[in-house]
Amino acid sequence: MEGDGWLLFISSARNFTLSMFANPSEKYRPAPPVDLPDRRWPARTLTQPPIWCSVDLRDGNQALAVPMNVSQKLELFEALVRCGFKEIEVGFPSASNTEFAFNRLLIEKGHVPDDVTIQVLVQAREDLIERTFESLVGAKKVIIHLYNSTSPAQRRVVFGKTKAEIRDIAVQGARWIQERLPRLAGTDVKLQYSPESFSATEVDFAKEVSEAVMDVWQPTPQRKMILNLPDTVEVAMPNVYADQIEWMCRNLRNRDSLIVSLHTHNDRGTGIAATELGMLAGADRVEGTLFGNGERTGNLDIVAVALNFYMHGFHPGLDFSDLNALREIYERCTGMTVPPRQPYAGELVFTAFSGSHQDAIKKGLAEWERGGREHWDVPYLSIDPRDLGREYREVIRVNSQSGKGGVAYLLESEFGIELPKDMQREFGPIANDAVDALGREVTGAELKAMFLREYVERTEPWELVHFHADGVDGRFDCRVSARHAGSEVKLTGEGNGPIAAFVHALHQHGVAPFEVANFKQHALSAGSEASAITYIQLRFADGRVRWGAGTDTNIELASIKAVLSGLNRAGA
Q: Are 506 and 538 contained in the same domain?
């Protein structure tokens, strides 16, 4: 591109940098406001929770690099039921055989409690609708969620259709569903429609399309349909989304025949705020995921919103009494991790590192334990961690009482050593035992020395002397010189990368079979003695798992040293 807007353009074989515009208005424009001068939502107060719908198994699953398999989806489904969700979007059954099979498993094996409604998503296409109905035969209670996109960009770029043609897509989809409803005789069916990309759609057109679908489905106050108005991509401040919701609630005809639902994403980092303001604006229902898993920057974090209600003094209708266990199930099933600063659920949110914070919290907890106050009012703790099965911790210093979180925090904050979570679980007890033997607090430097001795500085029985690898067309050959139990050995191997070739060389030499189960690598902070550190988890055929770590100015050599570190720690 040309023009005065560009400040800098740098391109090389390894770097590609484009500067920000000096005047962003040359490229971007703000989302238009909604004409609602007499808005009412700012003066309202939330006094009861919404209808909750978890979309972890569909929207959350769709956002995973490796989607959950049937058994993982079932484990997470059962956890959601235990939390108290009565509506759970279980998948997109027309998308794949796995999604379809999961629906059939839930229905045919009786995994869905009588008071839980399963929700399925489908586009306004007849073949997909047909497959969706096939997946629901025999279900007790279902929500069929129809959607099509409505924003100007989607109309122009994706579909190349006019407003009238987009409206007709929605109407035809609604008719195809209506025609097939007799096939689900005996099933309690509720219908849901989403003008997808609502947040970027003109409100008058969103109203037009929604009412056209309502004309087909004919909802009544006794038999309501769900109108889901998603913040599909956050394009404005949350107050604008609230204005959109209030405008729709006030202008839609037959509002008493609708359950207005929210589905917010987090592109601007305000998904929670948009949801809470949307409820003030008149919404009845909220869709979201545990801990906010979703595409791009994520979906609404239902745990956070529910506990926001709880800390204001009324029960959200969801039970998060054992938040640690729920987090473990979520991480195991999805492969995602909950960030340490995630509201309520993060490992460090009930931890104080500041001495002044620690002192204030201690005094507040002591006042509470004495019965000195009727309502919770402890400095720095908006909610009692024990209500969530958690506890307050101090980790400003490391001693025998410090958990793995404190150990990991100190290594990262002082030395840039960012241990993977599983490695924290391995090294934390090792460090605690060493500190306990000393019987005192330890400095960060002492803790780092413990880490280096345990992982990086081990040279028995294996020590690297020389490593070289060449690659052609994705295949690598390596030549290795190493010392094993005091004797020098020469190794060769091949694989689809330097590490794979090295593992093959070790196996050729007779080392017990193992595989690389986990890998992380990063640059160390400025001033450290090596420029890179690699962490590698080895899994052996007998079930043992060991972490290794290696440092070097050469990234490749750091990885090779990490493999040998793991072998040395396993005694291989």
A: yes
**Tokens of residue 482, six digits:** 């190493």
| CATH number assigned to the domain comprising residue 445 | 1.10.287.1400
**108 shares its domain with 240:** yes
Interatomic CA distance for residues 182 and 127, integer angstroms: 17
169 and 115 inside one domain: yes
pTM of the model: 0.71
Distance from C-alpha of 228 to C-alpha of 215, rounded to nearest angstrom: 16
Using one digit for the tens of pLDDT, what is the confidence trace for 201-212? 999 999 999 999
Instruction: Based on the fold, state whether residues 470 and 449 are members of the same structural domain.
Output: no
> Torsion over CA of 382, 384, 389 and 393, rounded to 10 degrees?
80
Give the single-character DSSP code of 380.
Answer: T
Residues 508 and 561 in one domain: yes
In angstroms, what CA-CA distances link 378 with 340, 344, 373? 21, 15, 10
State which residues form the domain around 235: 43-334
From residue 572, how far is each of 319, 529, 544, 565 by CA, in Å?
A: 46, 28, 11, 10
The number of folded domains in the chain is 3
**Beta carbons of 270 and 233 less than 8 angstroms apart:** no
- Summarize pLDDT for 142-196 with one digit per residue, the tens: 999 999 999 999 999 999 999 999 999 999 999 999 999 999 999 999 999 999 9
